[in-house]
Amino acid sequence: xxxxxxxxxxxxxxxxxxxxxxxxxxxxxxxxxxxxxxxxxxxxxxxxxxxxxxxxxxxxxxxxxxxxxxxxxxxxxxxxxxxxxxxxxxxxxxxxxxxxxxxxxxxxxxxxxxxxxxxxxxxxxxxxxxxxxxxxxxxxxxxxxxxxxxxxxxxxxxxxxxxxxxxxxxxxxxxxxxxxxxxxxxxxxxxxxxxx
Length: 196
What we know:
Layout: E1 18-21, E2 28-31, E3 38-45, E4 48-54, E5 62-65, E6 72-82, E7 87-97, E8 103-110, E9 120-127, E10 138-143, E11 146-147, E12 156-157, E13 167-173, E14 184-185, E15 189-190
Parallel strand pairs: 1-7
Antiparallel strand pairs: 2-5, 3-4, 3-6, 6-7, 8-9, 9-12, 10-11, 10-13, 13-14, 13-15
């Protein structure tokens, strides 16, 4: 009687640890185990079973979706077993963070003492502690405390839209592509009558 014996235990790669922001999607872990006699797998998260099944082929990837986690750190372990009871595992640490909304500062309108012939130019400094780039911040202009929707998200008000005696200011709500920050207001400028 010939009894087949496989002395080679399964092998498994290590996808590496990673971090994502809570609420974002499209996150998964994929392992690529190998063995000449594959049998089964199981995946745990912090020691609790979250997935298991048959491992049918050495070329078969094992993937688990990890979206929907709350803020914190989680350890995923994938264990694979062959038909002879030999096994191996890999662990991946997943860190989920919350996004910090961006801020805006140094709001100014140039020139600071405009006349009716001047364009009004808004400027501000965008900051994000997470390093996220600015994406779609909302700018609203106000004339005499009334919002001017025709100039929404523009940084320049043409001189043709202003008149002497009007008070203008703008607000900005910075956006980092994930969350809006607070709404910030610029100082008010008054359109002056040019010296005659």
